[in-house]
Amino acid sequence: MTPLRNYSSILDIRRGEDPAMDALLLHFMTENGLEYSIDPLKNASPEQVRFMLACKSDTFYAPCSDWMLLQLLQSRMSPELREMYLEQWRSLIRLVRASCHDPYQRRKILNLARYKFQMAMDSCIAIPSRVMKRMITIFLSQSGIDDPHRERKQLANEAAQKIVESTEWDRFVNRCPDAFRSCMRMDDLRFEMDFLEMKRLICASTLQNFAHWGEFFQSCGDVEKEIEENGEVFRELHQLFSPEKPGPLKILFMPYNSGGLIFDLELIRAMLRRGHRVVLALKEGFYFDAPTFWDMENDPVLAERFKGARLLTNVRVSKNELLREMREHPFVVISDGTRERLNPYRMSVALARVWKEADLVIVKGQENYRRTIMTSHSFTRDIFSYFRDDKGKLVLNFKPKAPWARKFRESDILAKAERIIGDMRRASAAGNTVMFYSGIIGSIPGQTSTAIEVMNVFIRNLRTRLDGVYIINPAEHFEEGMDADDLMYMWEKVQRSGYLDIWRFQSVQDIDRSFELMNRKVPPVWAGKDATYSTGCTKEMNIALDVQRQQRELQIIGPSPEKFFRRREYGVGKFCDVAIEDCNETNTI
Questions:
Q1: Sheet bearing 469-472, strands edge to edge
Q2: Which of 47, 143, 196, 414 is the most exposed place for a label (fewest CB within 10 A)?
Q3: What are the contacts of 14-18 at 24+ separation with CB within 8 A?
Q4: Cα(344)–Cα(281) distance, rounded to whole angstroms?
Q5: What digits encode the pLDDT tens for the residues 183-218?
Q6: How far separated are the first and last CA of the chain, in Å rounded?
Q7: How many contiguous H segments (helices) and E segments (strands) does the chain have?
Q8: Which three-class secondary structure string do you get for 263-314?
């Protein structure tokens, strides 16, 4: 085994510095089933992962705590790590014994799981929760049970619903403190009272005594004290939710368990009342007591509570579609695409895009805390984490986004699009013909800078040859930090503005002419390429044909449309296309 250096931080673990270390990291990723280059249908691309993680390109990330990663890379079975494996094993034993009533089937599943667990503990490289995920997959497939905890979760939701409908709950949430008896401004008072309600709901939503209302509300008596003890974290939230901030927040909410979800919905309702937009991410399938996207089909309590919410079933939703859904529906529910703890490598495209668009990510539960707070890695969005530990103590944490993580808000992108449309409008008013030029930018790996140069050289030459033509060159509007999602969203606004007269798509002859103008031979990687090689251009050809149906005078120049439709999807968040043979719309869990 490759010896692991004495790293002071996991942020020091990088790829590309030591081939032996690179091999160890690849071994870790493959044994945990997380390597995109080996299994791109199940795992997120590095670009999609960077929607959530603010990592440099050579930084290594694992979906576990710092301590866990160092333990596994050293293949050192410490007593603490052994206990974590055994904790997962005991959970599986309880699950199988409680749910599988066929003795033969039960013995077969447990013996198979024992072999798998022993192998995992011998190698000491697999994350314990990933081992558990595999065991659950085996159990579900062998037993034919799709959700062993369905009845248990329904009972928890029912008990929680009775609590929130009680007069005691109403009194607890709406009790007015003495501090608010007087105020200077009604606006300030309104916000402070709403924020106090949110704080109470955050504290109360983690209490677990559902069986006896008296015990629950007795515990609620300590909430005001807990709010004072966690004043520093609540001040961070206060600043974030302040009415002085421009516009409402976009919030991604990741709950923890059934029953608690009912209280989470009360908190979400309070945020919606302030005008914020909330996306609730539920599990795709069974993961113990975690609520799933499909629970409401069998749970009348949830079915009633989710009335009015927008249930978004498209796990590969585009940026344009997502933003439209969030504009039209203040409360959206999605699937995170997984049956395990928070794992950016396995998250659905929808979840990754919501994370990227969010202003705040709220994660509930100790497991989510380990994955977000107990890692040295930074994230692209502010994270608020809350849960109760084993002793019943409320634990709140606020982790600000990485200082270098830049968010292009929808308003920023639209403003950039409007500036370009304004230039088009003025050019058209001056009697000029408006042309848009679509070409390869990132479709050839490692050739983005060359692609920009090829387009710039050709269009400079084209401008000298065409009189009275205003040409829009996308390469001139490239801005550092904007990914393909941002650019495609911006350009679609421009392309549908109604000011285009000509839409020209890059041809083989255009590329050959560019290299001729640069006094260079066409490199092998560029030979025979044209706009049909680009998935981005393929999407733009779809838009061009749609625009032409509404604007019959639009002239489309370049390769014929039928040559484009070999490709259906561009890589999420990347400029480099998905390979033709990998164009698969199925989201595999």
A1: 469-472, 433-438, 502-505, 555-557
A2: 414
A3: 14/58, 14/59, 14/60, 15/58, 15/59, 15/60, 16/58, 17/58
A4: 13
A5: 556 777 888 889 999 999 999 888 876 666 666 676
A6: 31
A7: 22, 11
A8: HHHHHHHHHHHCCCEEEEEEECCCCCCCCECCHHHCCHHHHHHCCCCEECCC
